[in-house]
Amino acid sequence: MVLFSYVLTGVVFLVSIAYLYLRSRHNYWRDRGFPYVREKPHLLYGHMEKSFTKKHASYINQDLYKDLKSRGEAIGGMSFFMIPGLITTDPELVKTILVKDFNVFHDRGVYNDAKSDPLSAHLFALEGQEWRVLRQKLTPTFTSGRMKQMFGTIQQVADEFLKYMNENCHREIEMKDVLARFTTDVIGTCAFGIECNTLKDPESDFRKYGNMVFEQDVITVVKFVFASLYKNLAKRIGVKLTNEGVERFFLQVVRDTVEYREKNNVQRNDFMNLLLQIKNKGRLDDQDGESVTAKGDVGLTQNELAAQAFVFFIAGFETSSTTMNFCLYELAMNPEIQERLREEINQAVDENDGQVTYEMVMNNQYLDNVINETLRKYPPVESLSRVPMYDYTIPGTKLVIPKDTFIQIPVYAMQHDEEFYPEPERFNPDRFLPEEVKKRHPYTFLPFGEGPRVCIGLRFGVMQAKLGLITLLRNFRFSPTSRTPSQIVFDPKSFIISPSTGNYLKVDKV
Description:
Blueprint (H helix, E strand, L loop, with lengths): L1 H25 L1 H4 L25 H14 L4 E6 L2 E6 L2 H10 L27 H11 L5 H25 L2 E4 H17 L13 H9 L4 H12 L1 H6 L7 H21 L6 H11 L1 E3 L5 E3 L8 H32 L1 H17 L6 H5 L2 H13 L6 E3 L5 E2 L6 E2 L4 E4 L1 H4 L19 H4 L20 H18 E5 L23 E6 L1
Parallel strand pairs: 2-9
Antiparallel strand pairs: 1-2, 3-11, 4-5, 6-9, 7-8, 10-11
Helix pairs in contact: 6-7, 6-19, 7-13, 11-13, 12-13, 13-16, 13-19
């Protein structure tokens, strides 16, 4: 009985300590004199309580954003699970964080560990000098000249896509899955030089493991929160966020591809070819065969190369396919916009001697407007994150952001703010007419981020999305069916913005 009493006392003591610790985490900003959101945080989940099954993070952050902005706060405290974080509402402060004081806010605060979790050590997650060196090496791979070289490869996949659609049109098609299979084939051939044939085989390994990357469960979230709170400890004990099966598959694919290409001296106009040049020379050959220094003459290791190919694949296939999917949904729901875009595309092709070329694809103004409006309503990543490398005083205030504080820039919320975009739920490409763009603060439209850490592959992503849409709209008309939702709801289990249901559309030949 005495032993039981001691044990019970010990348990009560430990629970009390844990409770007080968690409460102190949630009172972090109040204790430091910062404005903070009024909603009471959950003891364990903070303000993310509904993120597992009820609400996508974009909606949660939009509520926090509205709460702070309604009180005129440029920034305010919140709880990202147990992590005290900040959320911004002021575009000028966003500009300061992303550009003006980038030397302070150059890191995203994303956990990575090249030793225990090799695929995590990619450009998106790396920090400090490691990021700077790798960014300098990779930047020349995404010039317009390099994209133009890859255009023919993407066009071949688009031709196969057209064949598939011709065989399956004149009926209702679930476009979300079809578009993901198209972009998987594009990225597979450009990143790995492999014909994935996902359009013909939806159960291909690339599709299977690509989907697994974007699935989040409680265990993954717990590991993510732990690694974010205790980075050094997480690295010491070897915390791995990448799924074991995903890691094995992609490391093996890269290993086999590199070995085959180097053994047989294979040259292709794709991303893998450029990575191999950097791996072996520390630089790229320019379009005329001369060497172009990739700003750092040290090459890439096999694992470093694999990590970059991996992030190029996962970032490219999912974000581009969801953008195309949302765009087709809006065009089906707004047939007058669809017809106008089709006319603009056909006119551009006719004026280009009937040829679909890189220049024609990338320089169609109305197509730009339509895609930008799609990215405004449905930014692939709903928030950007930054952490300061040392204590930072917000300009014009006495508020000091402590070193390593997690700061969220709520892209989705800002792009649905009525102050910047009246009737934000209405799909209106004319918002992106040059004269309309000039009226807005430039940092209220951030689908790819901004500043030195702007998405390095944005040109490629836009190119494949545009070519896919041109291929479809020149040949098919899209209209809603009884299964097309009147309003899209985002999947709370996906950490990118993705619809919770399929996109069923009637597809007819033009």
